[in-house]
TrEMBL record:
It is an enzyme of class 2 (transferase). It catalyses: DNA(n) + a 2'-deoxyribonucleoside 5'-triphosphate = DNA(n+1) + diphosphate. The lineage of its organism: Bacteria, Bacillati, Bacillota, Clostridia, Eubacteriales. The keyword Nucleotidyltransferase applies. GO terms for cellular component: DNA polymerase III complex. This is DNA-directed DNA polymerase. Pfam families: DNA_pol3_delta2 (PF13177), DNA_pol3_gamma3 (PF12169), DNAX_ATPase_lid (PF22608), DnaX_C (PF20964). It comes from the Bacteria. GO terms for molecular function: ATP binding; DNA binding; DNA-directed DNA polymerase activity; metal ion binding. It comes from Syntrophomonas zehnderi OL-4.
């Protein structure tokens, strides 16, 4: 079946056609109408939210022969040439390419040349954060002495990477993620005008997964279309786009609440082996927990962002079972993990640890109130989190020990005197007290080490280097342990006994 390239075909051609970004659109359109444009703009915001589209609309509006209320007519030769990419005075530079950098280098001379074809030269510099220092300097010099009749529009998804010297010379507009509802409306139109038939559930699913990006949403519709153009259902969307089903997340959470690590780990393995990404799973889990929390708090009034109709009943059951503070805490754990995953190699490991932490959190039950009434200090949120992390480590350590025991009991005896400290990248740190030098040395021997490596490989599905350390070695405490807190919390530093 054909490929529609909807996102290109459906690029908004006027300010009126832009979805969302209301403040930006109004401000720019008014400035054009009143002839108040400045010479440099930064458009920053997530991918596929309209930065390049609006830059092009501006380029047309300032060069259009018959503009109306700041809008381009899209019919004069200037508008049409710009739409076709044939207009000499609208120059698009991709800062991420080598050519882009060369173009910036001789920008200073080139901008002095008056517009050849239109009223204003418009430079659209995409992905501007990718420029080299040298290119930034060249750009800065140009912005410092702005020539007449030139407008720069710098677009970026990562404004924090742009030198402040540049930012301060530009007017800045922040583009926002689009609301699911805005995306749904646009998708429905796009589907309708291309004869694609899909149900509301599918639309909602795509809109949610696009995470506020219209290009991604339209791209997904394209992908679906190339697979099937009619009677598209939720299952088709999940299959074609390789998404995690909310039913899956729901069952995963069932395993967490039921304190069933075996099922949980199996489910994670299955998902990862099917090619799902750890980051995706964590994101979906966050969305699920968000829906669960909201339902717990406001009941039927909750507007679900992720959980589909078929899954509401199970969510309701979970809401009855789970404590709201713990759901909130789990949501925090998931969101934190999402951040860490961006920088981590040990995806599977971190994923498992995240769910184990949640499991540990839901395990600390009713005993607490009694303790508190006996005059003990009420545990703070930070204390609770520490407990969560410690329990997660314990669950993990027990799994490793059990795996080793199955393979060789004497190795298990040696290992069980140690303590899992934490991991850093592909390295796992295991600590022994000073008096256990014998155990440590034996574990360092090839035969025992190999058994442990094998178990770890089975548990995490990847190779890890193991380093055995003495717990009360000051240097270890300072160096190794401080690094190892990455996954297990600061409490580890205090392990002495
Ligand atoms: N606000 C919007 N309204 C309508 N369509 C949009 C909007 N934003 C994006 N789109 C759709 O997505 C496509 C890509 O948008 P655009 O190139 O403007 O995004 P961008 O913000 O420049 O993204 P990137 O940062 O990836 O360059 C457009 O052709 C259009 O189909
Ligand atoms: Mg762009
Ligand atoms: Zn025109």
């Amino acid at each position: 079946m054909a490929y529609l390239a909807l996102y290109r075909a459906l690029r908004p051609q006027t300010f009126a056609e832009v979805v969302g970004q209301e403040q930006t659109v109004t401000a720019l359109q008014n400035a054009i109408k009143d002839d108040r444009l400045t010479h440099a703009y930064i458009f920053s915001g997530p991918r596929g939210t309209g930065k390049t589209s609006i830059a092009k609309i501006m380029a047309k509006a300032v060069n259009c022969e018959n503009p109306v209320q700041g809008e381009p007519c899209n019919q004069c030769s200037a508008c049409m040439d710009i739409n076709n990419g044939n207009f000499m005075d609208v120059i698009e530079i991709d800062a991420a390419s080598n050519r882009g950098i060369d173009e910036i280098r001789d920008l200073r001379e080139r901008v002095r040349v008056m517009p050849a074809q239109g009223k204003k030269k418009v430079y659209i510099i995409d992905e501007v954060h990718m420029l080299t220092t040298e290119a930034f300097n060249a750009l800065l010099k140009t912005l410092e002495e702005p020539p007449e009749s030139v407008i720069f529009i710098l677009a970026t998804t990562e404004p924090q990477k742009i030198p402040s010297t540049i930012i301060s010379r530009c007017q800045r507009y922040n583009f926002r993620r689009l609301q699911p509802q805005q995306i749904i409306l646009r998708l429905r139109e796009a589907a309708h005008s291309n004869g694609i038939e899909l149900d509301d559930d599918s639309l909602a699913l795509i809109a949610r997964r696009a995470n506020g990006g219209m290009r991604d949403a339209l791209g997904m519709l394209d992908q679906l279309y190339s697979f099937k153009d009619h009677d598209i259902k939720r299952e088709d969307v999940l299959e074609v786009l390789g998404l995690v089903d909310d039913l899956f997340v729901s069952r995963l959470l069932d395993a967490v609440l039921a304190q069933d690590p075996g099922t949980m780990v199996d489910m994670l393995n299955t998902a990862l082996n099917e090619g799902k990404e750890a980051g995706q799973l964590i994101r979906e889990t966050s969305l699920y927990l968000r829906d669960l929390l909201l339902y717990k708090l406001v009941g039927e009034r909750a507007e679900f962002l992720f959980v589909g109709a078929a899954n509401r009943e199970n969510l309701q059951k979970q809401a009855q079972r789970a404590d709201k503070h713990k759901i909130l805490q789990s949501l925090r754990i998931a969101m934190e993990a999402g951040e860490k995953l961006k920088f981590s190699e040990g995806q599977r490991f971190l994923l498992e640890l995240t769910y184990l932490e949640m499991m540990a959190l839901f395990a600390q039950e009713e005993a607490k109130p009694a303790e508190i009434s006996e005059g003990k200090k009420k545990p703070t949120a930070a204390d609770k989190e520490k407990i969560g992390r410690n329990d997660a480590r314990e669950i993990l350590w027990n799994r490793i020990l059990a795996g080793v025991k199955e393979k060789k009991i004497p190795t298990h005896a040696l290992l069980s005197q140690g303590k899992l400290l934490g991991t850093k990248g592909d390295t796992m740190y295991i600590g022994y007290q000073k008096g256990y030098g014998f155990h440590k040395e034996r574990m360092e021997e090839k035969a025992n080490r190999e058994i442990l490596e094998q178990v770890i490989k089975e548990v995490f599905n990847r190779d890890m280097e193991i380093i055995f350390v003495f717990l009360d070695d000051q240097q270890v405490n300072d160096m190794v342990v401080k690094k190892a807190i990455e996954y297990f919390g600061e409490d580890i530093v205090q392990i002495k006994d």
